[in-house]
Specification:
Helices cover 42% and strands 19% of the residues. The chain is α+β, with helices and mostly antiparallel strands. The protein has two domains: 88 residues; 228 residues, BirA Bifunctional Protein, domain 2 (2-Layer Sandwich), CATH 3.30.930.10. The chain is rod-shaped and about 125 Å long. The site of zinc ion has 8 residues, from loops.
């Protein structure tokens, strides 16, 4: 009679192995009938009980009952697993919209907006031009000599001969002056491109904001005034501005201008390399050669132009230490602003 007990053991091992390998509800239902059904294997064992000796009967009865309970538990647990898997795949359309998924302006464009607002309040109008420019607008009309290093293939992205991705927003000056007689007072924010290898402070695509004011009697003092007013509105009234002589082909005289460090207040820190000043961009009085290119009378009119690194200003105002973060569009980063 130990044969029956051995059969039950073998059957148990097989059945449990099969139960564990069942992959879906349909297969589980079929196996359930096979194991626990009236014509199932367990029922066969029950029937056999009547044929065994009185002595063996309780043992076999207990073994069959234990097996039934074991199968029922296994099946119930499998059924629960399949049911919750189905639930996970179901989309509940009645759930409320999650507010934290709403988009907002990129920190770079928030800075563009703020720069634009400040200059608009000082009477500037917004101008724009194409990202794909010609040699003429990007270099020639801006008095940039043929052999100027900025024209080099290693600095500029050329699409084909004479056509390039603008390396600065200054072509917008030319396009605006070609269409409008003085007075002209514009700012032109936009993307620029240079073939720089990306690192913490360089990106092959970056944002600039160009400024231009042309009228009778515009002077260097006006330029200093407008840059200083901008710096104080953007970073607070304690910001100091300094101008250093420089050279650009399209302005004469030319300057580079710095803001006192917005991180340490000018005392010296890692960001300002301990000298208390942050280089912002270049500016100057529009070169008469540029006026000639657009047909302005350089005897009658004078003007100033300035550039502004929007990325630099964004990094400073939000205390970001790597320009690449502005272009990777990682939502975990962008959501912080
Ligand atoms: Zn500093």
């Amino acid at each position: 009679m130990n044969d029956i007990l051995n059969d039950i053991k073998t059957f148990e091992a097989e059945a449990i192995a099969r139960l564990n390998s069942v992959l879906d509800k349909q297969a589980l239902d079929a196996l359930k009938i096979e194991l626990l059904g009236r014509k199932g294997k367990l029922a066969d064992f029950s029937k056999a009980i009547s044929k065994v000796s009185d002595e063996m009967r309780p043992q076999i009865g207990a073994a069959v009952n234990r097996l039934r309970k074991l199968f029922e538990e296994h099946i119930a647990s499998k059924e629960q697993t399949f049911a919750s898997a189905v639930k996970k795949q179901t989309i509940d359309y009645t759930l409320p919209v999650r507010a934290d998924f709403l988009g907002h302006k990129h920190p770079l464009l928030q800075t563009v907006d703020d720069i634009v607002d400040i200059f608009k309040s000082m009477g500037f109008e917004i101008a724009s031009g194409p990202d794909v420019e010609t040699d003429y607008y990007n270099f020639d009309a801006l008095n940039t000599p043929e052999d100027h290093p900025a024209r080099d293939l290693s600095d500029t992205f050329y699409l084909k001969k004479g056509v390039l991705l603008r390396t600065h927003t200054s072509p917008v000056q030319i396009r605006t002056m070609e269409k409008h007689k003085p007075p002209v007072r514009i700012i032109a924010p936009g993307r620029c491109y240079r073939s720089d290898y990306p690192d913490a402070s360089h990106s092959p695509v970056f944002y600039q904001c160009e400024g231009l004011y042309v009228d009778e009697g515009v002077s260097m003092a006006d330029l200093k005034g407008v840059i200083t007013a901008f710096a104080r509105t953007m970073f607070g009234k304690d910001i100091k501005v300094r101008f250093r002589p420089h050279f650009f082909p399209f302005t004469e005289p030319s300057v580079e201008y710095d803001f006192s460090c917005v991180i340490c207040g000018g005392k010296g820190c890692r960001v300002c390399k301990n000298n208390g000043w942050l280089e912002i961009s270049g500016a100057g009085m529009v070169d008469p050669e540029v006026f000639r290119a657009v047909g302005y009378d350089s005897e009658k009119y004078t003007g100033y132009a300035f550039g502004m690194g929007v990325d630099r200003i964004t990094l400073l105002r939000y205390r970001i230490d790597d320009i690449r973060l502005l272009y990777e569009n990682d939502v975990r980063f962008i959501r912080q602003f």
